[in-house]
Fold these 3 entries.
Entry 1:
Amino acid sequence: MKLLIVEDDADYAAGLKAEMEALDHRVTVAATGPAGLTAVEREGFDAVILDCMLPQIDGASVARRLRAGGHRLPVLMLSALGRSSEKVGGLEAGADDYVVKPTPAEEIDARLKALIRARGWTGGGETDTLAAGDIVVSPGQHRAWRAGEPLDLTRLEFALLAELARHAGSYLTRAMLLERVWGYDFEPTTNIVDAQIRSLRRKLTVAGGEDPIQTKRGVGYMLHR
Amino acid sequence: MASLRGLTLVFLGAFGAAVAGAGYATYSASHRAVVTLVDRRIEEVSRALLDETRPGDAAAILERVRLFAGRRETGDIGFELEDARGRWLGGNVHLARVIPSGFSTLYRRDRIVGLTAGRALSRDAGGGLRLITMIETEPVDGYNTLRLRNYVLGFGLIALVVLAGTAGFSLLIRRRIAEVRRTAEAIADGDLGSRVPVDPAGGAFAEQAVSFNRMLDRIALLVEGIRNVGGDIAHDLRTPLARLRSRLTRLVEAAPDAALAQELEAALAQCDEMLGMFAAILRIAEVEGGDRRAGFRPVDLAELAVQIGETMADAAEARGGRLVVAADAPAIVTGDRQLLSQALLNLVENALAHGPAGTMVRIAVAQRGDTVLLSVADNGPGIAPADRAAALRRFGRLDASRNTPGHGLGLPLVEAVARLHRGTLALGEAAPGLVVTLTLPRGPTG
């Protein structure tokens, strides 16, 4: 992917750039909001990583100007503070996602990929059925099937499967699943995501078939397409 | 230190006594003055009347009485001449009562026409005769009533002014105290931006409010400084830790043999533990900042408890124990769903971590009056009452739990969340085991 990092902390930007490049991205760094906006106008990027606290104009204003300029590319906000008010402000300004520094590069990578994949969706919404391999999930009916056989899932397992199916083919990190399935903005000491994935796996494979969920250490989980 | 109410009552009591004392003193002084003047006049008139008659000559004395009664300057004086046996011999007044020799006081009950109060002098007129001379002590009719009315009006008005002043004054003080109290409570609840309103008209209270606010500014600055230091340290240490973590993650994958991979896994776990600790420090700072109150919404604790029961059931079973949830009816509070979830998760994690394998944990949600009780009970070793305060202290790990994972920030975070919701956290005895109860104000129903 071709990424733009808008970040005034040169050390942090350089570190993140190196890490993202190690994950096979091409990265450009802009130190200020106006420089970032100019860069987006000049060349096409696949996504922007935008720091919340920038000199001159802040991250939320940059996001707002991007949207006002008609740019629909995914914007991921980076925050040093992680205050909920800051998060709400960033999302309202038009950012797509929000992470608190220091977030591992793998997490940022997974989130950006999920955002880009989500851009490919063609409207529809929750009532449409989701399919991933031989798994079908119907959020509207709150039911799921594997190879035509209905699955008996708890509410949490269902929500987890639906989220994985919605992003089938992309890795979802633990933090992303905690946010989207549980609604948590924190990581509990107990690995509750792993526990739910384990029991979901059990139920998906009880009638035979390959394990459809792939785990990538330090990154997260992916449902095969 | 006396209370404001007590002080006011003592003041009003003293004031009342002073008014009554002053009234009585004035009344009795003027009364004594009148009596003294009247007595002197009676003495003079009666001596003048008897001076020019022979002692014992009743006819001559009565002649003098007639003369005196007719004179303008002595026309208001009553005379009566009695014989030795107290029989009325003559005079312009008939006193029914026998009075002793010397001065006496006359009252309305003596039934002398036109006299309500007076003085009388009975003196020897020679030959066993007694001359009684009487004068009114009331210069006008109903003088006593009039005097009483003057006192009541005069002193009553003063009393009224003082009472109104006291009431107004105490109202003013009460209002100022209430303003200061509200501010102090807001500060205690974590709103460090709250200040005492300053009366633009100035005055002592305004000066006090300004000083108080300056003190609060200073405290806010210091607290902010401490918070920033804690936050900055946690934040600055988190960045290199995160780098270390991602490097370790890559190393685990590339490890050539299982033994090394296991070592690296252990290092990774320690990394996560430290990151967890910093996250908890930053989280407590965020909660104590109070900003999250802006996002408060109605939250059903029963529903939340059920979700956490479902989430943590596996973790409990993995330790051979069980997690049950007793939350039948909706229990709505106004709060932050994420923080309440985190608090409850922390409590369940604590119960599982500190109990032996096979620990039973019970989450219960109940309404009591205007509060909602959220409790987590276990049948583990519990915490001795003497150790409970230490358990709530930051990094306050008990000796018994030194060997279990955790950073000693779980309960302090839960307590900060309780405080943010204007609730309380209490540790109790579950006999056997520990019961931790969060008491939160009930939110709007429906």
Note: The CA atoms of residues 112 and 165 of chain B lie 48 Å apart.
Entry 2:
Amino acid sequence: MLVIVFLFLLIIGKVFYIQVIQYKKLNNYATGLWSRNLPIEANRGIIYDINGTILADNITTTSLVLIPNQIKDKENTATLLAQILGVSKEDMMEHVTKIASIERVHPEGRRLSYDIADKINELKLPGVYLIKESKRYYPYDTFLSHTIGFVGIDNQGLAGLELIYDEYLTGSYGAIKYFSDAKGNRLELSEVYEQPQDGINMTLTINYDIQASVERELDNVMSKYSPEQAWGIAMDPNSGEILAIASRPAFSPSNYSDYTVEEINRNLPIWMTYEPGSTFKIVTLAASVNEKIVDLNNDYFYDGGAVTVEGATLHCWKHGGHGQQTYLQVVENSCNPGFVNLGLKLGKEKLFDYIRNFGFGSKTGIDLNGESSGIIFNLDKVGPVELATTAFGQGVSVTPIQQITAVSAAINGGILYKPYIVKSLNEPETNSVIKENKPTVVRQVITKEASDIVKYALESVVQNGTGRNAFIDGYRVGGKTGTAQKVQDGHYMVGNYITSFMGFLPADDPQIVVYIAVDNAKGVSQYGGTVAAPIVRNILVDAIEALDISKRDGAGEKNYNVGEKHYKVVSNVIGMSVNDAKKALGDFTLEFSGSGSIVSFQSPTANEKILEGDVVRLYLSE
Amino acid sequence: MGDSMKKNSVDVLLLISVLAISIFGIIMIYSASYVWAEYKFNDPFKFVKNQGIFFVIGVIFMIIISKLNYHKYYDRANTLLIGCLVLLVLVLIPGIGTVRNGSRSWFGIGSFGIQPSEFTKLALIIFTSKYLVNNEKLVGNFKKGVLPILAILFLVFGLIMLQPDFGTGMIIIMSIMGLLFVGGVNFKFFLKLGIVGVLGIVGLIVVAPYRLKRILSFLNPWSDPLGSGFQIIQSLYAIGPGGLFGYGFLNSRQKHFYLPEPQTDFIFSIISEEFGVMGIFIVSLLFITIIYTGFKIAKRSNDLFGKYLAFGITFQIAFQAILNLMVVVGLIPVTGVTLPFLSYGGSSLLITLCSIGILLNISRYEK
């Protein structure tokens, strides 16, 4: 009897052990066995520009899902659903009788309109569920496409920021959990709703207005000059934040499969490497000024059209040369022999030190995929010829992002920043910051004083020199042209250039730097000043408004070439008769609207400076 | 013999315990089976109705038998056993015996089924008790005393294994062994038998090593969750998540097709799932009371046949109950033994109640 009592105690003890010690484990396993999930898709994190404009959004749709085991009256269910969805009953019967735990009615039952979803909902059929589906939506299509990237059919990031930040942007599935028996029938036990967790929102440093301006200007240049490619970047020089970045050809992220891998993956502003040409002279200039080996206003250089270095003749771009010039004029004229002279004065060690310190030869570390590092000469292999060509931007291979980052350092007081495009990651419910990028100082490259001199020199390039096409009246613009012959198989190609312009504004306190490059523009003389400078000017004009930059004092007057249009002041014509107004605004083209004989409104307003021949709109009333 | 003895009233504690545990069993069979019954027969009360009918018949039999002098079985022991042996042979013949769950163990009468092996359990205990009384002097002698009864035992075991029904066979072997032990068979005999048994098991394992894995799978049922570990896992899923207090009556989840036929071998896990540790306590307490009173009746009986009979019946119930419970909670491998009074099964309940009737009758002739 004792043995029997002992055995019963053993059994009770084991039950106790199972119910207390193993409870958690068994309960987890068993809940997994009993519960069934109807997945609810989460929204992907929204991507915003710096001002909150949505660049990548989600559309929510409703889709029909069946649990065939729970459908008792299959005939009736199939008939009703077929009626509402407008499909044949046989098709629906197939879905309803499918041997599957969850059956998606695809494609007829996906992305249902509100009306149809509502009709299905009202029937309250057992085993028939409507679940939420979320799909990525890019409201501006090709806009910023290389950088944002795109997602695949399951909403997974496949390229660009969508890929890099996929783990943040992807939310987690929610579910309606219900208990079922071993045959899949729903049990009358409590149902658990697990809310899907939306992905983390992302704010970029991109400014929608500036980006739109860059996109528009690149589209225009593509249709105007039919170049092979074109690209542009805008950066805040005081932080390294990317304000705009774009490439042509572009692609539509919703139809990414229509494009080649190259078209999709090559984010040209960070991927492309090429000889920069004259924009690189900014580096030589900054090094020379920082080393104090030149006084721009008081040192002179004579350009006879060519310079000979160790038997090699290096020509100036201007046939016959620029003659006697100050070094400021050397910069204004982008005179190659002048820069060769500066390079030789610096010596290879110093010049290449500066080149490396400005960030060339290594990746900038921008938070995007596919960045190249470019190539600069190994110091051992640099002879006087290599030194000389490097000084004016030949024989080095750099990326656009390296150039704009280096120029930002040259004009912002000498500080090289690490560029970045993601401003912050925010929790979708509370908007609390999960991760925030702040400006990262890489190093001080030149002194503030040297930087001031560089700004002054580059402003004078736009006022007096090769960059005059970027001039904006009342705002101080600095800049530098670039025209680089492309290299193919180790030889320079004939008549095939990458023409570029690096511009910034205001020149005394730069808020934005814009770099535009056009690859093999056709039907135009391929100079940076002709092709790229007007584009940069247009973008800077838009940036003035976008960044709310005010007019500067001490803005210089532009020096005009022969035959070039001049800026003229618009006088006040409000209250004048039509004829008087015509006389007063004789330099401009007038457009009238309204009816009457007296001007009651004018645009632009009085005292604006615009190019002669530009349109002034006048509104007339009685 | 015996007729002249003084008659007491029956043991009331045993009667109450048996009625209580049987009624609880019927309630639990309803709770455990209505899902299956509805699914299979479109009648949630199918199993509970069957069991109820057998309970009523069983109780009537129990009352009648409790009034029948148990010494009559002494006289009819041979006839009873021979009758059962005939039934055991008949049940093996296709067309007469029907197959359920892979064993040809039943005589089907409509939806009812009668298992001759259940009757044999009782008949063999009666026979062995008589045998021990008649051969009191010979039990020390292996050849003359033990071998004949062993031969009969293995004949019965062999017939049952032809069905096959390993669980019932084992219970018969063990309860008769228990009876022989009490009857004074030499301890050395059990030792030898034990050694032979162990050698036999080792031999079986050497021949087919997978058997060891099978046997040991109860230690970690998750090593083969869909095979040998399946039932025990499903049982643990009932006992564990139900927790100390249980989900409450009718609220078992495992009975929803997860635990196969929850009203039979594994009804104890459903009891645990719905009533928690309290249910386990009450069931255990009722069993201990029944077993304790059974042994007490055996002890107090003033003739040897009554002692052996009462002990045999009680020991068989005790052994079967403990075997079932240890399987259900995962202490030993699955053997396919039902739980007396609680598991669904008409013949089993009927015979168990009849056995209790005999016990009650023996209790009337106590010293």
Note: Residues 234 and 514 of chain A are 4 Å apart (CA to CA).
Entry 3:
Amino acid sequence: MRLEVGYINIKDVQFGNATEVKDSVLYVNKQDMLDCIGSDPRLEKIDIDIAKPGEEVRITPVKDVIQPRVKAEGPSGVFPGFVSKVDTVGSGRTHVLRGANVVTTGRIVGFQEGLIDMTGPGADYTPFSKSCNVVVICEPIEDLKQHQHEEAIRLVGLKAAAYLAEAARDLAPDELKTYETKPLLEQVNEYQGLPKVAYVYMLQSQGLLHDTYVYGVDAKQIIPTLIYPTEVMDGAIISGNCVSACDKNTTYHHLNNPIIHDLFEKHGKELNFVGVVITNENVFLADKERSSNMTAKLVKMMGVDGVIISEEGFGNPDTDLIMNCKKIENEGIKTVIVTDEYAGRDGASQSLADADAKADAVVTAGNANEIIKLPPMKKIIGHIEPVDVIAGGFKGSLKEDGSIEAELQVITGATNELGYNRLSATTV
Amino acid sequence: MSKLRVVHYINQFFAGLGGEEKADVKPEIREGKVGPGMAFAAALGQEAEIVATVVCGDSFYGENMEEARKLVLDMVKGQKAHLFIAGPAFNAGRYGVACGDICKAVSEELGIPVLTGMYIENPGADIYRKHVSIVQTGNSAADMRNAVPAMAKAALKLARGEDLKASEDGVMEKGIRKNMYREARGSQRAVDMLIAKLSGQPFETEYPMPDFDRVPPNPAVEDISKAKIALVTSGGIVPKGNPDNIEASSATKYGKYDIDGVTDLTSDAYQTAHGGYDPVYANDDPDRVLPVDVLRDMEKEGVIGGLHRYFYSTVGNGTSVANSVGFASKFAKELKEDGVDAVILTST
């Protein structure tokens, strides 16, 4: 399967009379956009704002970040099962607005939503302080149940990204990259002599607001399966969860999965990247056993020499991570796992809820419990009060002057377990 | 530039007062350097000067820790010190504990850099390495000539505001995890690590796996119909309003709640404080997480001997293993004292 990705660089976003891209500036016709994305009776009010790098702006509570993408040539459309039909994606040509993102906010759904600072010390921890953000603020009707609330906002976010990306459909990209994975038997034989590598992609599926969707299907209900890496770039996997902000994979992270990109970088040179196995992180033991058994069996069937396994979330999914690692190592396949840590505010606690000697190659994205201090910002988009209750916040996190003292956990994408950042941790 | 003012802490033996028979002397302060202070003065050179030495008997410190700590702190306070050095204690257990404890207290109370030195197996090392920089020394005073220059060098670095590294400065790892930035992003590090692992090249894991504390299940309760059962949960069930303000995540406390006469947890009286899951179903009927209703039935039917009067609850959402162990070691003791025979642990 072969996908061309055309990147259109966006350096600024402004409201304008028409939604279009001119000279790397994305103009947004606010009313037109509102008309297109807002018809869900579960949402009482939708508004749109813009936040740019360097501005004294704090966006919270952040639910998801979505990069605008459009299928410029070829079959199907992005976000299959949501804004497009469920045709198989990952081939043809996709155009991307690179540098502009949709961020969804509004009244809090659960406790596990995040915060993005566009400047100051908090901005260093999140990739989304570096993009021009079209912030969609959704306020639900009274007494809407949380799972309905989450779904309504998830759909608005995807629609908003698809709406903006239409502006990129007929543009000439600033950069065009091609990603290709051959059918398994061909791919395995393509680079004789290079180690064959697969990626085991764990999807958050603990349920009760911890969900991920694959072609529109709740990942709780999948059994591990093989996909082409380019399917992910077209939005085959999207985030639908309110897990702690620092290490949930936003839809942006799925679309730009850095493990997939960095494996492609070495593909045909130092390794042979043959495919992706997606699996889940269900809470029942039988599900954990089944999924890790299937995953180990699948990578063995593929005949690979090594895998990278990425986790999403922490605590309960640590057990899935270690099961996957152990069972795959037991098949004689080498593993590297990517995780983050909950070592306590003082860093003195054990970092993961499970451990095994076979997990001897670990990449860590940092200790999410470490305390950070964030200065007040001039403008808040969303609602500031939930800072005391979002995961990583505590009573008194929000100070009278608007500054915040909380765990790093509160910042969207800060300890991303796909390895999107340079942040890590070490023993001192 | 004026010299840094250093206060040095030593025990009765190194002060020349005597051995075990003098181990109960109370803290006293002397002007200038004493005993190993001579060697420190030489090693510190022009940058720093020992302005005072506090001497304290090891037994006195060990047996009266709070009092000793306070007395020594008061003495150090008066010296306007820039740097505090204790020991080296080598393998002397009580001395090592005293050095670690007073360094921790000085650091916390006075906010100045502190350093001590001891043998890796000194009990003080395990207790205080998390809090205090400890230079690793030999196990006896024969190592004084190596220990002192290493400690002086490390202490000066600390005074200059530099971080100490286990590999360079001979200090013990504190064993705590600290955030830092690496050169490449995590995904690239993972790919590079896998290539190294596949080709048999050396690679370094970023998180060495700890020895995992696996708890074997106890044997089954012999006669459940006579057993007193308690409920303990990490699912966050608390009386409505969360009176103890248990955090929605990364909990630092637990609650103990009286359910005498309660036969059913209703949504009017109970809720969950947990921030890690959709609370709708737990708040609708808190028995779904903490099954008081079912256990009351079983109590009535004689299936169990009885339900304990109190339940314990915390939030297991990003809560550190260390905090969890801390909570349980406290309330497990209470449960035992209250004659509880078995506990049902529920999560979310």
Note: Residues 2-410 of chain A form one domain.
